[in-house]
Specification:
The structure is a single chain. The protein is an alpha+beta fold. 19% of the residues lie in helices and 36% in strands. It contains three helices and 14 strands. The strands form four sheets. Strands 7, 8, 9, 10, 11, 12, 13 and 14 form an eight-stranded antiparallel beta sheet that branches. A two-stranded antiparallel ribbon has the order 1-2. A hairpin with a 2-residue loop joins strand 1 and strand 2. The radius of gyration is 25 Å and the shape is globular. The protein starts with a helix and ends with a strand.
Length: 205
């Protein structure tokens, strides 16, 4: 019995050590991880995804609220050019890269005439070779559809019914339906009650 007290003290010390270690480990969860892109440092949190690619990593912010406002046929907002080229082939034309004051990124308009598509492609100045889709504009003869199954030629009533809960009424009228918002969503433009133009992305900054 004379050894009971020292044994209890040693046991308590071990338990306290384990508690301290567990607390330190738990504190590391939920913190931001810093990511460097050619010397420039960014924070990664739960709203950002680091896309795996052969190019340097690029942070893509995803909007996971409401309906899908990013996918359009085999392409989507934030998609890397390598994947886009696999789906569409090389573009017919490319505009000159221009730096936008709103986001400080380089932007170019790439056109696929046979697909009825104009994609605004963007990249950071520090990583010009890492190019992704910033916005999508579709017109005839485009046959791609959104996740809700709407495309060029869809009627006003069909679009309204599919996106009823997500329509921005302030940015919608008889010739246009805005799903989400002009700061990030899908804008359908109609002529003779049928969609003649579809835009995915941010129409305003």
């Amino acid at each position: 019995m004379e050894y009971d007290q020292p044994l209890k003290k040693n046991t308590m010390k071990k338990l306290l050590s384990l508690v301290v270690v567990a607390s330190l480990i738990s504190c590391n969860f939920g913190t931001k991880t810093e990511v460097k892109v050619k010397g420039k440092q960014y924070d990664r949190d739960t709203t950002n995804v680091i896309k795996k690619d052969t190019n340097p990593p690029l942070i893509i912010t995803l909007d996971t609220s409401g309906v899908d406002k990013s996918n359009f046929g085999p392409i989507k907002l934030g998609q890397y050019y390598g994947e886009t080229q696999e789906a569409l082939g090389p573009p017919d034309t490319k505009s000159k890269a221009i730096e936008w004051a709103a986001d400080g990124m380089l932007h170019e308009d790439w056109t696929w005439k046979k697909n009825g598509l104009v994609l605004n492609m963007s990249s950071y100045k520090e990583t010009k070779d890492v190019i992704t889709i910033h916005s999508i504009t579709a017109m005839a003869p485009c046959t791609f559809i959104t996740k809700a199954g709407l495309g060029i030629g869809s009627t006003y009533a069909e679009v309204e019914a599919a996106y009823k809960k997500d329509i921005d009424t302030e940015a919608t009228d008889k010739t246009q339906i805005t799903v989400g918002s002009v700061y990030g969503g899908i804008i359908f433009t109609f002529k003779n009650n049928k969609a003649e133009r579809i835009f995915l992305g941010a129409a305003a900054e």
